[in-house]
């Protein structure tokens, strides 16, 4: 075996030990299924008129952008030992705020920026409320954010007076539908935001402290960590990212659908985090894992459409794939398999006598 | 008196956990119709032995004989069917269910249409009546009665299965004197019915009031079995605390009582500092460069007092002056801000952050002080990590390993390093040497002595009195949540002296001695 080969094998082992290894395998398998159905599935071509990349892979990346945002935020909240059920509703609030703002103020780029700012500010504010409910009032994260989940959708309906508000604004629309150097803006923005959050969390001591309070809140308190500000920051960040996701989701159709935008996306975010290998009990988190999880969910959604699974069977299909994945990740199940394999390795001798 | 054959006989029990031998060749016997107390300080192996008997832990070697037959018990359900029931310190009952449901949980009387609640409550009443609790209304929720009564309900629940062995793990820790008397009456009743009772308590007076026989454990080793009436308190405490190995004796042994100018403003001056239910108002002066030992048995208030000084618990009376300035210390953050560091006795729950690396654990307190927005640079981290891993000899010397994979002694060194990195002026060490091997112990003691030389005020708490006497210049003696005296250490002060103070206090007439000043003042 050459050294490079050995290094590759070693690298593969390290990767296999990562929790999100199975997520990557699942993405590849799903892509393979699609290729079996249509060999040209993976092909990416250049649109000759404007030089933009088009293809199913580009679609998947584009669709993954909102999930990516909320999954990254969720991974931080989960690391503290909490959960944020309100991200889907905060998405619709952000969408409602931006659409109403655009409708009232017109077409210019400045208005688009204003809409973006207003949407993100309202989202972050709702996140701060979540954080205060959790850390100051002391409510359980599940309950606090469940309340916000219900209140958020209600708030969106109040903002739009119950209508599905549509608006037209070129620059705002460009966020979700534009292209830069052949790549969708929304994908580039998502990548930039993820890198930015990763940089802030890992370059400051935020990540360390989030993990510390997630692993052992008592010991963290004794070490002088103030959980209050930290939790408010984390919930605010999660909501801010949900706001960005809401802008992505509404800008692509320039309409906010108060009952469907962001609907049940909190579940996708939680799944993405779990697929990424995080424990819902809190502790160590991996942004790479959350990214893999989000990509998997986007791939899965695309596969369902591509295979023509009937819409009534969609939830069941999705559930089946995710259950299999969770089983593969479960240490207990894996041990069971290793034991059986070991037993079978011993078995042949006995079978001769039998 | 003819000795009947023991109902439980454990021989040569050993259990090892990663990095520590929890039980090392321990013997234990329990006879029917006796109250047998298991004695030992924290980490002596009492709970481990109970868990070995009830099948919570698997034993590595040794045998358990129940009723003369060797048994391998896996789990509490099997223990119960073997006739062993346990009542733990924190009542393990469902406060939202009724008293009767709690007593009969899992043993409900069944009729043709499921559970016959009327018969079940009747059976519960009968079970309670056996303990003299027949007056309780079994249909009221458990939460409606006092903790003491809940404790008794837990016992009657344990006796529903006709247990031959009843284990009571610190049942009295949250009861007042009258409630303890009630519990003891019930225990005596059961004993007279032939039940073997294994009792654990840290209160010596209670042990002498109720138990017939004692087994003493120390550091996971069997120290001896005695009849209670043949072993006096002083001898018992000595056996629990024991003598340490010669290795340790060489270390700063019997520090000379330095002539200290006590009129100088102390670093920390606490006046009447206390907290209801944990420490009675206490006065305390701590000077720079001085090691002050807190001596007392578990539950004496030694830990609780330390927690008040750091702000881990909020004092509800008294005041603290730091260098003559009145200061409020209500949270650990306040403590750290005033250069106080507190290394907890509860290493696993309140000390290390297990999944994080040694590096992250070492820098945690310094980083917390700076806030998350001002991260330590990698170079500063390396400086802290390098300095303390070398100075304290942390093994293995790999800072990126999760701290939970280190042995207890090395975890303790990491914690010590975490606090030293904050440059404390007052360092409070609660049981820094518990459950760790002799080598690590010596290293930690060495570091403590050096710190004091360097001008740090140190509070040193240990259940090993020898250690306290060896290291401290001054010893504050506590008992029953109160400071009962203060000794200025000198060449002629021995652990025995401290033991005598603890044993004598409050039992007979208060010991007259010129060194003891019960109020610690005037």
UniProtKB/TrEMBL annotation, chain B:
Q: Organism's domain of life?
A: Bacteria
Q: Which UniProt keywords apply?
A: ATP-binding, Nucleotide-binding, Repeat, Transport
What's the short name of a Pfam family annotated to this entry?
ABC_tran
Record GO terms (molecular function) = ATP binding
Boundaries of every ABC transporter domain copy: 8-244, 262-505
Q: Which InterPro entries match?
A: AAA+_ATPase, ABC_carbohydrate_import_ATPase, ABC_transporter-like_ATP-bd, ABC_transporter-like_CS, P-loop_NTPase
The protein's matches in CDD domains, at most eight in alphabetical order, are given as: ABC_Carb_Monos_I, ABC_Carb_Monos_II
Name of the protein: Sugar ABC transporter ATP-binding protein
